[in-house]
Each structure stands twice: as structure tokens, then as C-alpha cells.
Design a protein that fits this description.
The chain has 191 residues and is mainly alpha-helical. Helices cover 48% and strands 6% of the residues. The strands form 2 sheets. A two-stranded parallel ribbon has the order 1-4. Helix 6 packs across helix 7 (147-158) and helix 6 (133-141) packs parallel to helix 8 (162-188). The longest helix has 27 residues, at 162-188.
């Protein structure tokens, strides 16, 4: 919807599981981050040997075993698109705010517990992110006097396990809110 190269190629669109509302990196920024990561695992240079050394790294070196507040952002950024000046000329949020996206009918949505896909245990099992009551308190704390009612609602839906409740709160805060905002922008701007 936001790539100039895709305009006119689609009659309808479906957006599922999230909105790209953050600011994306440029190619130069992504390359610098890649160089920093490579150097952090002992690989330097741009030679074929350096590329082979990176390809030979174990998955555990490339993907954090457990995402935390400190590692989630850099990891997600590392697998996100970049502004290359051709496929993406700006961050999708900027295109949406200007109403410059493709004007086609859109179905948009997200799933409950989507944040559970952002962390894995050593055996490959998913765990919600962020984990624990402190992250739930931080997110729900923004609600002020409505915090207790919101927590009670989440517990009525997801039980009292703090990890499950935290996953649900994170899913709604990260995926749900962004998806609703993107739907509002699309509706306002003629999609």
C-alpha cells in the first residue's frame, strides 16, 4: 500500500498482524547496524570470507533466546524493511499520514496474544513479551485510575498467570492499538 512501485498493482488488500507505524531505518543506517552486529560477534570486513563467517554463525547467536525490553527493539529493527529510495521512499507511517498510500479497499486486523511470537525458550517454545507483572504495571500504569479495572478485565479474560496477562497487555498495546490507528488513517485517507 505504501510502495510507489506497487501502486496500481492491487485492487484490494489485507493487512494482518500488525502495522508498520515506527520509523524505518535507511539503507546506510541498516548497514551500520549490521557492521556493528558483525563486529560484536567477531566478524569484520566486507569480503566473501566475512559473509561466510556470518552465515556459519549458530541461530542462537543471531536470534535472542529471550527477548527483553533491551533486545526486542534492535531485533525487530534487524528484520524490518529499510527505506531504500525505490521500494520504500519513506517510513510507511509518513505515507499514511499524508494519505499517499494506494487507494484500495482494505481489511485490517490482528490476533490476540500476538506478542507471544516475539520470544522463544531454548526448546523453541513461545513466551509472551514483555514478561512479568512489572511490564504489565508499566503499560497499564498509563491508564491512571482505570488501571485496576483494566487489570481485572485482563485477568477475567486470561486468568491470573502474570506471564499470560502480560502477553495479552503487550499484544493489545503493541499490535492492537497500532492496528486500530492504522485502520483510522486508512479510513480517513480514502483506502
Amino acid at each position: 500500500l505504501v510502495s510507489p512501485m506497487a501502486k496500481g498493482l492491487f485492487q484490494k488488500a489485507i493487512i494482518e498482524s500488525g502495522a508498520m507505524l515506527g520509523r524505518l531505518r535507511t539503507v546506510a543506517q541498516a548497514q551500520a547496524a549490521g557492521t556493528t552486529f558483525a563486529e560484536s560477534v567477531g566478524v569484520s570486513g566486507t569480503s566473501t570470507a566475512a559473509a561466510q563467517a556470518l552465515r556459519s554463525l549458530p541461530v542462537a547467536t543471531l536470534v535472542p533466546d529471550k527477548l527483553t525490553a533491551a533486545t526486542a527493539g534492535p531485533f525487530i529493527a534487524s528484520i524490518s524493511p529499510v527505506i531504500d529510495g525505490k521500494v520504500l521512499t519513506e517510513s510507511p507511517i509518513d505515507t499514511l499520514l499524508k494519505g499517499a498510500q494506494a487507494k484500495v479497499p482494505v481489511i485490517i486486523g490482528n490476533n490476540s496474544m500476538e506478542s507471544s511470537v516475539f520470544s522463544w525458550d531454548g526448546a523453541g517454545g513461545p513466551h509472551p513479551v514483555p514478561l512479568g507483572p512489572s511490564n504489565t504495571d508499566q503499560t497499564l500504569g498509563r491508564l491512571g485510575s482505570d488501571r485496576s479495572a483494566a487489570l481485572a478485565w485482563y485477568q477475567s479474560q486470561y486468568g491470573s498467570d502474570p506471564t499470560r496477562v502480560s502477553g495479552a497487555v503487550a499484544s493489545d498495546a503493541f499490535m492492537g492499538a497500532n492496528t486500530r490507528y492504522e485502520a483510522e488513517l486508512l479510513a480517513r485517507n480514502g483506502a
